[in-house]
Amino acid sequence: MQRTEKKKIIQKYAAHGKDTGSAQVQVAVITERINQLQQHLVDHPKDNHSRRGLLGLVGKRRRHLNYLKLHDKDGYEEIIKKLKLKKITVKAVRQTVKKVIKKKGEIDPKKATKKAPAKKKATKKAPEAAKKAVKKPAAKKTAEKKPAAKKAEKK
Q1: Quick one: fold of 3-106?
Q2: How far is the C-alpha of 65 from the C-alpha of 93, rounded, in Å?
Q3: How far apart are CA 47 and CA 50, in angstroms?
Q4: Model confidence over 48-80: pLDDT tens digits?
């Protein structure tokens, strides 16, 4: 992408004069790069390195759109209409929210309740294992007595 093309895109989607890094601008620039890579791959279908780069750009654009959808609904709707992109499904947004919660260190209440019973189960298994360990030596002692009884019978 030429510098002049990139500047035009930034001016078109910028919120103010010095805006070069907002999510809307980044989505627009990435979309232009994606379109150029798609054209390149039409001409060169075996260029797998460029294909991998294209997939990375699509993922990056999706993450920026997820951010917009969570933090600026109006900006998200506006950029989707201008660039003629598909809307994000609810499932994709939920996954992004889970990632944000993990990064902030907040505990998911559903997962916290699931972990507590797992600890209780682990404590119940320990006494059962100890009982089984006690039974095994007792079985060996009875096996040892039987040969002694047979020797006594032979005499």
Answers
A1: Helix Hairpins (1.10.287)
A2: 9
A3: 6
A4: 999 999 999 999 999 999 999 999 889 999 999
